[in-house]
Specification:
The complex is a heterotetramer, with two copies of chain A (78 residues) and two copies of chain B (147 residues). With 78 residues, chain A is α+β, with helices and mostly antiparallel strands. In chain A, 23% of the residues lie in helices and 31% in strands. The termini of chain B are far apart. The chains are: A alpha+beta (78), B alpha+beta (147). Chains in contact: A-B, B-C, C-D. Chains A and B meet through loops of A and strand 4, helix 2, helix 3 and strand 7 of B. Strand 2 of chain B pairs antiparallel with strand 2 of chain C.
Chain lengths: 78, 147, 147, 78
């Protein structure tokens, strides 16, 4: 069974109510986002980027077993 | 990942004494002619009548250190630097305290100054770090960086 | 001259502890978000096989302070700064020690960084200050600034 | 009698062997330079600027009584 880890930060973690989720049987980041936005509609209203295994992705990316997907609201370090 | 990534994160604020120590350590490197330092300090901004008392910083550390590694390599490629040090706070940093310390040194001033500025810009833009601006009444808002 | 000119000159090197104190003093100014610091450090350059061990600085003080006053006014006119401090050594500063400390602070990083760089460039170009590079054997040459 | 003070610095002071000279009856910086370069020929070989009463002058400037003339080799602070 294909498992992935979803890490969330900042405002995204506030919406999800947790910063670390384990999910199964998702083949792409698009599919993941659809599922999350259905469960947490407030996600649709905030900007965030997606990293898979610490690399930012644009568009949809396929997810391997054990992929780590990070949901990254706009950075505000410094 | 096999590569050894240099840590940049420190718990809480960067102390002035720590900065002094960093400067002092460079006195043995007598090929250095110029140091450029940037310090980010937490402001007590007022938002809708409420005052920011602190910023609480979090990061996606594994990714941040990889990004910083890439920035460091690009900067050393681009500028004739002797050395470069970066420290970023995690956790609570109160208004008036320092949360970012970027320190570049070179034989001549131009590379030291240009590298320092570029590192600061890239840190703000590229490092997965988030600042939660905490108000007096313990409510908060997520910080947005000024372009 | 009736106007009171701020002194910028210090005897001997600028100590790291002095820099730390200057930074620390700004922690009460919680409207500041960014500090930019430039430090000039004496290099032990080798010229025709002889090593520079120190620079001995002299100035035409009355003129230098007037020039610096003009630079300060122009910089505050041009950039949104909270404050600016400049310290330049006179007398002997050994290799590895600091002879120039420029410190600008602002709400946002861009004015702090740009002002600091401009002040450094103007100091090097416009202040009547001379550095005598002293070699191990006590011979010397007059320093020339790198453009 | 018109008196002026000549301050010299850096490499210029090395050539003059002193940093503070009092001279009389010189009406312009050109006249002053001619006199100094005659007495100290090495002056002709180094670059320097001239300030009268702390203001840089270009070309020849007339000298009032009590003028302070400074001979300034290239600055090298910092």
């Amino acid at each position: 069974m294909k498992e992935i880890t979803v890490l969330s930060f900042g405002a995204v973690a506030d919406i999800l109510g947790q910063s670390n989720l384990k999910l199964s049987n998702l083949s792409s980041t698009d599919e993941l986002m659809q599922q999350l936005e259905k469960e947490y509609p407030a996600l649709k209203n905030i900007p965030y980027a997606i990293a898979v295994n610490k690399q930012l992705v644009t568009g949809s990316a396929s997810l391997e077993h054990n992929a780590i997907v990070a949901l990254l609201p706009p950075f505000s370090g410094g | 990942m096999e590569k050894k990534l240099k840590n940049i994160f420190v718990r809480g604020p960067v102390a002035a004494a720590f900065i002094a120590d960093s400067i002092q350590k460079h006195s043995t490197q007598t090929g250095i002619g110029a140091h450029s330092i940037f310090l980010g300090q937490v402001r007590n901004d007022v938002v809708n009548g409420k005052t920011v008392t602190a910023i609480d910083y979090t990061t996606y550390e594994e990714m941040a250190l990889e990004q910083m590694h890439g920035i460091r390599e690009a900067i050393f490629e681009k500028y004739e630097l002797t050395c470069m040090h970066v420290y970023h706070s995690l956790g609570t940093v109160k208004a008036g305290e320092i949360s970012l310390f970027v320190f570049t040194s070179a034989k001549h001033r131009k590379p030291a100054i240009a590298a320092c500025e570029e590192v600061v810009e890239r840190i703000k833009k590229e490092l997965p770090v988030w600042g939660k601006e905490v108000f007096e009444d313990t409510t908060y808002q997520w910080k947005e960086n000024h372009p």
